[in-house]
Write a structure and sequence with these properties.
Elements lengths: L4 H13 L4 H8 L3 E6 L2 E6 L2 H23 L4 E6 L16 H9 L46 H12 L9 E4 L6 H15 L5 E5 H13 L3 H9 L3 E5 L8 H16 L3 E6 L11 H7 L3 E4 L5 H15 L5 H10 L4 H17 L6 H13 L7 H12 L3 H5 L5 H17 L4 H7 L5 H17 L1 H16 L3
Parallel strand pairs: 2-3, 4-7, 4-8, 5-6, 6-7
Antiparallel strand pairs: 1-2
Helix pairs in contact: 1-3, 5-6, 7-8, 11-12, 11-13, 12-14, 13-14, 15-17, 17-19, 18-19, 19-20
The structure holds adenosine-5'-diphosphate and magnesium ion (MG).
């Protein structure tokens, strides 16, 4: 009866953990603090309005059920939202390290203590004229042209939130990561463009990390390091693309660290992209990595078929091209690895047709794609396998990834694990994570079970070969 606040919330978290992916758990639930329990009303503190809205939109049902299980039918949940105080944006995914927090938050100068300071403390001179900076933004990379799908929903929404309130959300820095050609650069520009539109007075700058590095190296050569640092510290919204290139570049990381701290303390927005998750960024200084955790890291995944079709259609619309639906679909089904290749295939089909003055037919598309696909290595993804398996058994993906022990679901799940093992390079534990948070032993067991059943059960064997064919259709 008299469970403590902490106990109640702990129990809730256990239930939630079983029902969401580890990444989502970490992003949305870990930062929540329970603050009150009175008359079966549990009050939780969430870090921002955005998080509150996200929880309500995506996890209302789960939260409702959880509260009901923990507190019974009269149980209720209330939110308390941390005010997004512009002077002190709270750390978000990870707590501010306590031992640094005072020195940093109260520091009146920009430099944190641990920097090897060859550069003087830059103070912004009051009344200094606003910088006239060319933002270097590509005008066609807008939000409007960036198709939303499951693959990019979190990153896109966070980007949008940041654009509406640069420096004023807990997503600072916002780090967008994902493989090549999945839209990191596009999204980064979109945020910049949106900010420029809503806040014309803000100085926005997009810079690829290699350019940043070369500018820095030149400034050292020319003895104008101070100017370099000052320039960057006066930017309101700094977008650095592909920060993985800074790996191993210690001097550049040092100077970036200084700039980062200055901007962050002054509530300037920092947006970063990387082709790897922060944990996998080898050669990046720990103090930088830990700062990335102050904000939000959101990944971009490979878009599903529907999203790929929508992207192609958008692209054709923007370019004023018309192509029959069946051809668009054919391209979208054939090119599954990334958006850049998808667009590349479309462009080469269009180019072929206009060069040879041939109409765009399915025949032509097939020829081109055959050539195109041969030149690229294709990797089947676990997500893709799961989709095929779910389609085959007519199961919703959430059910496959859930904890349910229903026989049909267990079997489908085991098949998804089996194909993930045999057709991708993923490790057993990675497959487990993707299949609803199972461990490697479970995956191994699944693979053995499938092998056994194939030998003993004819019907099962047809399932396996049918699914295998379906997976391979799009993987030539
Ligand atoms: P990355 O920086 O991740 O390598 P890019 O941002 O350069 O990828 O994207 C590659 C191409 O794919 C660009 O032409 C971009 O406009 C397009 N693209 C990527 N994602 C989307 C999307 N969700 N909607 C529309 N176009 C996209
Ligand atoms: Mg890029």
């Amino acid at each position: 009866m008299h469970k403590s606040l902490e106990q109640v919330w702990e129990n809730c978290l256990q239930l939630i953990k079983d029902n969401v992916s580890p990444q989502n758990y970490k992003t949305w639930f870990e930062p929540i603090k329970p603050i009150k329990l009175e008359n079966k009303v549990l009050t939780i503190e969430v870090p921002s309005q955005f998080v509150y809205e996200w929880l309500e939109e995506h996890y209302l049902d789960l939260l409702r059920k959880t509260i009901k299980l923990e507190l019974g039918v009269p149980g209720r949940l209330e939110y308390s939202i941390v005010m997004e105080n512009i002077n002190n944006s709270q750390p978000y995914t990870v707590k501010f390290p306590a031992k640094n927090s005072n020195s940093l938050k109260n520091a009146s100068v920009a430099m944190p203590l641990d920097i090897s300071s060859t550069i003087r403390n830059p103070f912004i001179i009051p009344g200094l004229k606003k910088l006239d900076v060319d933002s270097q933004l590509n005008v066609s990379y807008t939000f409007e042209n960036f198709i939303e799908g499951d693959c990019n929903r979190l990153a896109r929404s966070a980007g949008y939130a940041v654009a509406g309130k640069p420096g004023g959300t807990s997503f600072n820095p916002l780090l967008v990561y994902g493989g090549v050609g999945l839209g990191k650069t596009h999204l980064a520009h979109a945020i910049g463009i949106e900010i420029k539109n809503s806040f014309p007075n803000k100085t926005v700058l997009y810079v690829p990390s290699d350019r940043f590095m070369h500018q820095f190296v030149d400034s050292v050569k020319n003895n104008s390091q101070n100017d370099f640092v000052h320039f960057y510290q006066m930017i309101d919204v700094l977008i650095i693309d592909d920060i993985q290139f800074l790996a191993g570049k210690e001097k550049t990381q040092d100077v970036f660290f200084q700039i980062f701290n200055h901007l962050h303390q002054n509530n300037k927005q920092i947006i970063l992209t990387s082709d790897k998750a922060p944990v996998d960024l080898q050669g990046m200084e720990q103090r930088l990595l830990s700062r990335f955790k102050w904000g939000l890291s959101a990944d971009l995944q490979i878009p599903d078929l529907e999203t790929r079709i929508a992207i192609l259609k958008k692209k054709m619309y923007v370019d004023g091209i018309e192509i029959p639906n069946e051809i668009t679909e054919y391209i979208a089904m054939s090119i599954t690895s990334n958006v850049r290749e998808l667009e590349g295939a479309l462009i080469s089909i269009i180019a072929q047709s206009s060069l040879n003055k041939r109409p765009i037919t399915l025949e032509l598309a097939k020829q081109m794609i055959d050539k195109f696909v041969k030149n690229t290595v294709h990797e089947i993804s676990i997500d893709y396998i799961q989709k095929v398996v779910c389609d085959y058994f007519d199961l919703p993906l959430e059910v496959l990834k859930s904890k349910t022990r229903k026989r049909e679901v267990v079997q489908a799940r085991q098949l998804a694990m089996y194909f993930s093992k045999s057709m991708t390079k993923s490790s057993l534990s990675n497959i487990g994570i993707h299949c609803g948070g199972k461990d490697h032993a479970t995956v191994l067991h699944a693979c053995r079970t499938v092998n056994n059943l194939m030998e003993t059960d004819k019907k099962f064997k047809t399932y396996v070969s049918d699914i295998q064919k379906r997976i391979q259709v799009h993987d030539k």
